[in-house]
């Protein structure tokens, strides 16, 4: 599937979003509404002021994710506040069905969804790469309680999550390299 995603050549914004989806495994709505002013290239991170649960989320960006953003930057940044603008109106984010349609066109309709990248990452990060559940859950933007029942601050463990995200991107590259 990862090879097919890399080979997909649909609308440039859809193609880039599809390639970024498994790398960041954020909620599909957050990805399609990503704004250029939320990307901090110097810190290599995406800073969402709020997610579905109402909390902010910092998404460390791997070298591979930064490369995708750098490729699309000269195409969309000058004409839209959105990294992945709508094909018909750059003042709006890409359609909420764009990734699904791309997955359908690559032969994964009924087998994979935009949200499925989250489940894939959640499972493989724990079972294959052996990351602790609390780091994965924090990266997914889920509320994670500490031993006293308080929710973790989303910016805690940023160095560990940054390392995890780079390891994850490298792991995906290794999977793509297999025959």
Write down the Rg: 16 Å
Helix proportion range: 40-55%
Strand content: 5-15%
Biggest pleated sheet:
3 strands, antiparallel
β-strand number: 3
The CATH topology name reads: hpI Integrase, Chain A
Structural class category: mainly alpha
Distance between the termini: 12 Å
Q: How many helix segments?
A: 8
| Low-pLDDT regions | none
The name of the CATH architecture is: Orthogonal Bundle
In terms of topology, how is this protein built?
Elements lengths: L1 H6 L4 H13 L3 H5 L6 E2 L4 E4 L8 E4 L2 H14 L21 H8 L10 H12 L5 H7 L18 H20 L2
Antiparallel strand pairs: 1-2, 2-3
Helix pairs in contact: 2-4, 2-5
Explain what this protein looks like in three dimensions.
The protein has 179 residues and is mainly α. The protein has a single domain (2-177), classed as Orthogonal Bundle (hpI Integrase, Chain A), CATH 1.10.443. It is built from eight helices and three strands; from the N terminus they run αααβββααααα. It has helices at 2-7, 12-24, 28-32, 63-76, 98-105, 116-127, 133-139, 158-177, and strands spanning 39-40, 45-48, 57-60. Strands 1-2-3 form a three-stranded antiparallel sheet. Strand 1 (39-40) and strand 2 form a beta hairpin. The longest helix is centred in the C-terminal third of the chain and has 20 residues, at 158-177. It is globular and about 45 Å long. The mean pLDDT is 93.
């Amino acid at each position: 599937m990862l090879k097919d995603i890399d080979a997909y050549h649909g609308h440039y914004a859809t193609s880039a979003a599809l390639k970024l989806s498994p790398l960041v495994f954020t909620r599909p709505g957050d990805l399609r509404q990503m704004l250029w002013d939320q990307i901090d290239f110097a810190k290599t991170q995406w800073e969402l002021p709020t997610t579905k649960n109402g909390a902010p989320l910092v998404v460390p960006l791997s070298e591979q994710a930064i490369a995708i953003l750098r490729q699309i930057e000269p195409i969309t940044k000058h004409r839209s506040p959105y990294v992945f603008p709508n094909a018909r109106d750059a003042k709006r984010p890409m359609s909420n069905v764009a990734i699904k349609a791309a997955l359908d066109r690559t032969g994964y309709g009924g087998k994979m969804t935009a949200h499925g990248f989250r489940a894939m990452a959640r499972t493989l990060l724990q079972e294959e790469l052996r990351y602790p559940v609390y780091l994965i859950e924090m990266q997914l933007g889920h509320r994670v309680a500490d031993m006293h029942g308080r929710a973790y601050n989303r910016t805690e463990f940023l160095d560990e999550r940054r390392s995890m995200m780079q390891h994850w991107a490298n792991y995906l590259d290794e999977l793509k390299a297999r025959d």
